[in-house]
Design goal:
The chain is an all-alpha fold and 56 residues long. The protein has helices at 22-27, 44-54. The protein has two helices and no strands. The chain starts with 21 loop residues before the first helix and ends with a helix.
């Protein structure tokens, strides 16, 4: 099948997941602190890449 015959990629918000229900939100985990996001034992290169990704 040629590329032209392939279905188009969904664009916009159509590819996003649905909103969570109140019950689902109530059961979702909650971080007590931003420190919970810290990853131990990263090399300097890995840490630099991680922080660079957060800035984008």
């Amino acid at each position: 099948m040629s590329d032209a015959a392939q279905p188009a990629q969904r664009t916009g918000s159509a590819g996003l997941p649905r909103d969570l229900t109140e019950a689902e939100l109530g059961h979702a985990p909650v971080l007590e602190s931003v420190d919970d996001l810290l990853i131990e034992d990263l090399t300097d290169v890995e840490a630099d890449a991680f922080y660079a990704a957060l800035d984008t």
